[in-house]
Structure formats: C-alpha cells, structure tokens
Amino acid sequence: MDELFSTLFNQPYGTDSGTQVALAAISSLLTAVALMLLAHRNDLGWWAQILAVFAGPLVLALSFGYEGLYFAVPALAVAAYGLWRFSSFDLRGRFTRAVEPAPLTAGRVLTGVVLALLLTAAQWGPFLFNGYAFGAATGRIWLAYAATAVVTAALVGIANGVRAAWIAVVLGSAGSIATLFAGTPPFGTLLTLVLQLLVAGYGFFVWGALRLSGAEPGAAGGAAQHDVGGSAAAYPPSPYRD
Questions:
Q1: What is the DSSP string of 134-157?
Q2: Of 182, 157, 223, 200, nearest in space to 33 by CA
Q3: Rounded to an integer, what distance in angstroms lies between the CA atom of residue 208 and that of residue 211?
Q4: Each residue of 169-185: pLDDT tens digit?
Q5: How far is Cα 164 from Cα 169, in angstroms, rounded to an integer?
Q6: 97 phi/psi in degrees, rounded to 5
Q7: What pTM did the predictor assign?
Q8: Is residue 197 pLDDT above 70, yes or no?
Q9: Are the C-beta atoms of 88 and 48 separated by less than 8 Å?
Q10: Cβ-contact 66, 232 below 8 angstroms
Q11: Which residues contact 141 (CB under 8 A, 6 or more apart)?
C-alpha cells in the first residue's frame, strides 16, 4: 500500500504532503467526471463538481489552513451557480437539460478573464499581501494557480451554454500538466489531469451539435404535417372520409 501510494503521488504515505497531493488528485478526478456529465448536459455534473470542491480545496482548507477558504468558497459558489443556471433550461430526460447555446461575446470573454484573475489571487489568500507571492521563486506557483483558476472560471461559461468555454478548460488543464513537469510529476495527479483535458476536448466536440438541436422539433413537426409531395397529411385519419 505504501509503495503504491508513493508511486501514484510521489509522496510518503501518511504524511501531510502526501495527503494534500492525494486530495488534489481526487478533486481533479471528480472534476473530470463532472465534465463528462456536463458534456452531455447532465445536472449530475454540477453535483460531481461540488464533490470535487469538497474533496479537494475545502477539505484541504479545513485541515491544513483556513487560508484555502479564500479559493474554496468561490469555487463552491461557481459549482452552485452552474447547478442553478442549468435548472433554468428544460429537462430532456431525467437529468439532461436542453441547454441553449450562447455566443462567445467580448463581454463574456472579459468576465471570464476577470474571474480567472480573481480566482488566481484568491488561491494566494493573505500571502498575496505580505510580499511572499511576488518572490523570485514563485513563478511556477503563479502558473499553477492560474491554470486552476482558468478551469474554474470556464465552468461559468459552460453553465451558460458557451461552447468555447470547453477550450478554456483544455488550456487550463494543459497548463496544470505543464507545471507538473517542472518537478517530478506524481503519476496519479498527472493521469487525472490528462483525463480532465481529454474529457474537455470531448465536451467541445459534443457541444458542437447544440445549435442543431433547436431545429429538431420544427423539423419533426414539419414532417408530421406534410407528406413528401408537399400536401397536407391527414393525421389522424378521419373515419368519415371516403
């Protein structure tokens, strides 16, 4: 068990650092599950993301320093917002929503950038104001925090039906993977982030069909009212016709 843990997370089993790395990997895995569900516009994806925040940022903050709440609380709020936003779309099945596609506008891009910046700063917590965050050796930490913030901020775009938000998740996941290789990357964490990246790319292609979904009811209705010759179809057939 100890050897397996060390192989997956590159940390000794039972140590605080090992627990932190393992919880972060579990959080990334739950986010990948959430993205897979959201790719199919499933409400359960937001619940999975809420669990991801609880398993990672929130537990880490409560266990190793309340400074982590500066990021955990907004991350939880983003997941809750997504659940609320999806509730405004019609149901298509038990948990699937008929998400209406939204265009990528300058306002949405600006909102996403500002949110990503705020979430990046939030991960530093009070260290942002005591000078430590701007030390000479904190560049890699800034990149890691920015990558995580981009993924979290992109969830707001997904909640609103913006297909391009999936590309932001891909970029954020790729950034997290890149920062891992600055040291010795834990195999378990690397695997979950690669899975997250692949699922985000899958979500982008799946959501490409959203714009066609609005035409389906009309097309079906037209087929029901007209025959192949263009004349009105008699449906249901009248028992009084000769």
A1: GSTT-HHHHHHHHHHHHHHHHHHH
A2: 200
A3: 7
A4: 999 999 999 998 877 77
A5: 9
A6: -110, 145
A7: 0.84
A8: yes
A9: no
A10: no
A11: 133
